[in-house]
Amino acid sequence: MEVVSNYKFQVLEKIGNGGFGFVEKIQLFNMSETHSGLYARKVLEPKTELKLYRERFKKEVMCQSQCHHKHIIPIYIASINSEKPHFIMQLGIHDLQELLDNDALEEAEKYAVMDALLLGLKHIHDQGFIHRDIKPSNIIMCDDGTFKITDFGLIRRTDITKELNPLTAIGFVLGTEEYLAPELHYEGNDYSHKSDIFAMGKIFDKLNITHEGLQKIIKKCCKMDPTDRYESIDQILIDIESLDGVSAA
After folding, report:
1. What keywords are annotated for this sequence in UniProt (predicted)?
2. Residues 134-143: what's their mean pLDDT?
């Protein structure tokens, strides 16, 4: 049992690894141990001593906490200036990659994934951010059946002039290759809402939804040339609203 500030927790198992940290499943207790619950805890790797990465970890906490939304994993407790920086957040039961690998999604759940991504990512964009790492393993299914976006480790402001961290500067290509917008491979291009939309479209494509109208929308999200893609998620929602038999998120 570990004690931090005014709570105690017990690590049950490691459930994920990232570039500069890892995620554990924990049981969290109050100090008198009369109440407890299961949560996820993300920890910055102890060997990560560079101030640069500690600042990025702090930014991850601040941005994810700022984006309050039903389709974004909430952070409940954060200890970012301690010797072992970490934060505690909602625990999911599956990530979308697991569900896709096991062909475990019902048709209604596929539409729920689309709704969650559209609304969650729209909220992130509306707050002035680009997520930069939209992929199935960062979409979490919670025990109530809702899907939520997580892992804000690569998040950046839409306006690059407001960024001070060199890891977020133009020229640093980060993210997962399969979901990386094609234009980011060429010098002079930068992340944008459109690069997030490309990644989202690639996820939608993996859902194998057969609705013809939605297929056209998904293809437009995934256009190789960013000028042919949607400008914003609002535009996507308008096109979905116009489809027969499909409700916009």
Report:
1. ATP-binding, Kinase, Nucleotide-binding, Serine/threonine-protein kinase, Transferase
2. 97
Domain ranges of the chain: 2-90, 92-242
Multiple choice CATH, 92-242, 1.10.510.10, 3.40.190.120, 3.30.450.20, 3.30.1130.10: 1.10.510.10
Residue list, annotated binding site: 42
pLDDT of residue 116: 98
Q: Class of 2-90 per CATH?
A: alpha beta
Least confident segment among 4-8, 57-61, 181-185: 4-8
**Rounded to the nearest 5°, which phi and psi values hold at 23?**
-120, 135
Tell me which of 30 and 11 has the higher pLDDT. 11
pTM greater than the 0.70 cutoff: yes
Identical fold for domains 2-90 and 92-242, yes or no, is no
| Residue ranges of the binding site for ATP | 42
| Identity of residue 164 | L
